[in-house]
Design brief:
The complex is a heterodimer.
Chain A (H helix, E strand, L loop, with lengths): L2 E3 L4 E5 L4 E3 L2 E3 L5 E8 L6 E7 L7 E2 L2 E6 L4 E6 L8 E9 L6 E2 L3 E6 L1
Parallel strand pairs in A: 2-12
Antiparallel strand pairs in A: 1-4, 3-9, 5-6, 5-10, 7-8, 8-9, 10-11, 10-12
Chain B lengths: L3 E4 L2 E4 L5 E7 L5 E7 L5 E9 L2 E4 L7 E3 L5 E6 L8 E8 L11 E2 L3 E5 L1
Parallel strand pairs in B: 2-11
Antiparallel strand pairs in B: 1-3, 3-8, 4-5, 4-9, 5-6, 7-8, 9-10, 9-11
């Protein structure tokens, strides 16, 4: 069965600094999708970034980028120039290409220090 | 375009009571999902639907039932609430895998349920 692990329950970063959130996953599939979702105090789940496993190029969205290491089954999120609004829970998620379900990790709580 | 909406936002139930959570989406998505979120456990899939009139079990389906009579609505029912069902419930929707469109899930704002 597929699993998603986030080994950092809590992280903190100074405003304007860079922080990296870790995620590892376990799968025997070669084709799949990976996601990072952000959940602020409002509890709304917001998609931050998406990566297709068949693409070698790491996805980027403005200040957010990923380091996708397929062989190591690692999918870390880098947040550059951290802002107060980045404070939230961040969930890593996996979906097999031909599968309907998304598997979520337990989440990392990110605090941004002014 | 409201996206995904959930009703109610918050509810308190006594053990043994029943209730229905309503999820509605206006994006014409084929797929809809119900998750529960508990501290330290991330989101766990309860039930999901790949189209009108069809539903399937997720990771933690026991104690819940669902119905998808209309494409835009997905109902989650608790027939006899238990304290273990105290949680935050999220609904999500997406295009189908075969549609060729981006299958990213769009989430509702969540429903906080407390069972006493």
């Amino acid at each position: 069965a597929q699993t998603v692990t986030q080994s950092q329950p809590e992280m903190s970063v100074q405003e304007a600094e860079t922080v990296t959130l870790s995620c590892t996953y376990d799968t025997s599939e070669s084709d799949y999708y990976l996601f990072w979702y952000k959940q602020p105090p409002s509890r709304q789940m917001i998609l931050v970034i998406r990566q297709e496993a068949y693409k070698q190029q790491n996805a980027t969205e403005n200040r957010f980028s990923v380091n996708f290491q397929k062989a190591a089954k690692s999918f870390s999120l880098k947040i550059s120039d951290s802002q107060l609004g980045d404070a939230a829970m961040y969930f890593c998620a996996y979906r097999k290409t031909s599968y309907d379900k998304v598997i979520f990790g337990p989440g990392t709580s990110l605090s941004v220090i002014p | 375009n409201a996206g995904v909406t959930q009703t109610p936002k918050f509810r308190v139930l006594k053990t043994g009571q029943s209730m229905t959570l309503l999820c509605a989406q206006d994006m014409n998505h084929e797929y809809m999902y119900w998750y529960r979120q508990d501290p330290g456990m991330g989101l766990r899939l309860i039930h999901y639907s790949v189209g009108e009139g069809t539903t399937a079990k997720g990771e933690v389906p026991d104690g819940y039932n669902v119905s998808r009579l209309k494409k835009q609505n997905f109902l989650l029912g608790l027939e006899s609430a238990a304290p273990s069902q105290t949680s935050v419930y999220f609904c999500a929707s997406s295009y189908s895998i075969s549609s060729g469109r981006q299958e990213t899930q769009y989430f509702g704002p969540g429903t906080r349920l407390l069972v006493l």
